[in-house]
Amino acid sequence: MLPKVILADTIDGAVEEVLDELKQDARSSRRHNNVIYFDGWDGLGASAVLRAVGRRLTPKAGSRAPAAAGLEFTHIFHIDCSKWESRRTMQRIIAEQLKLPTSVMEMFDVQDEDDDYRGVGKGSRFEIPRVAEEINQQIQMLNLNGRSLFIFNNGSSNEIDLSGLG
Fold first, then answer.
1. pTM of the entire predicted model
2. CB of 112 within 8 A of CB of 125?
3. What is the SS3 string spanning the chain?
4. Longest Cα–Cα distance in the chain
5. Mind listing the pLDDT tens digit for each residue in 47-70?
């Protein structure tokens, strides 16, 4: 299936098109592992659009207003890596958002210490497989109790394969 091209020329227009795409995904049979890629206008504006999408989908505190039909998410996570550091930093942000146990979070410190000792630069640090397993398990549990949406703001110049992160 070819990706949908978002032709909006304003932030509000792009937000509406992303929300429409989410609604279509919710109605289709490909509900699991669906990905929408939004690059902005040569990279510009992507952060603003992604933040606005997250705000539109997150209920306001104390509000009983329902989300738009087909866009009800039990959990919404906004993983902002617009200031890119490394795949491990992105994995750490995901783990923090999922509120993984201290024992899992300590794995980052141990691996970072080891990498510091071995002289591995911060930008060259890859994800930790054991943490990826924990993230995957947590996401599976969340999805048993509803739908989750992850909004990733990727500041790297590379496409990120999210499966290695968990």
1. 0.80
2. yes
3. CCCCCCCCCCHHHHHHHHHHHHHHHHHCCCCCCCCCCCCCECCECHHHHHHHHHHHHCCCCCCCCCCCCCCCCCEEEEEEECCCCCHHHHHHHHHHHCCCCHHHHHHHHHHHHHHHHHCCCHHHCCCCHHHHHHHHHHHHHHHHCCCEEEEEEECCCCCCCHHHHC
4. 53
5. 899 999 988 888 766 666 656 656
